[in-house]
Amino acid sequence: MNPLTVRQRDTATGPVLHVAGDLDFDQAPELRGRLDRLALSPGQCLVLDLSGLAFCDSSGITALLAARQHAMAAGADIVLAAVPANLLRVLTVVGLDQVFTLRPDSSAAS
To answer: What stretch of H or E contains 9?
Structure first.
């Protein structure tokens, strides 16, 4: 098991959260709690950089959907960046690639 780490970097367009480790049933609440405390302003863009994500189960996907709801409630956008191939495949199969904006990396957010 890889511990979940979430590092925040603030940019001119909004916060970038670098999510690394396992986003699973045990650790998804940590990301959700972090998002609940994250202040977003209308027009900002929340970027979740998933380049360090080792594993994501359904609880992790639910946390990503909660992040989307949090951003939308604030009038902000959300982008998933550097989505690992295995997670991208799951997102595509369940149609969430049509719900999230996906980017190959978070460099556009700097």
So the answer is: strand 5-11
- CA-CA distance, 99 to 3, in Å (whole number)? 27
User: In angstroms, rounded to a whole number, what is the distance separating the alpha carbons of residues 75 and 1?
Assistant: 35
Whether the CB-CB separation of 24 and 2 falls below 8 Å is answered with: no
Q: 3-19 in b/e burial notation, b at 16+ Cβ within 10 A?
A: ebebeeeeeebbbbbbb
pTM equals 0.94
Q: What are phi and psi of 25, to 5 degrees?
A: -55, -40
More confident residue, 110 or 4: 4
pLDDT in tens, 25-50: 999 999 999 999 999 999 999 999 99
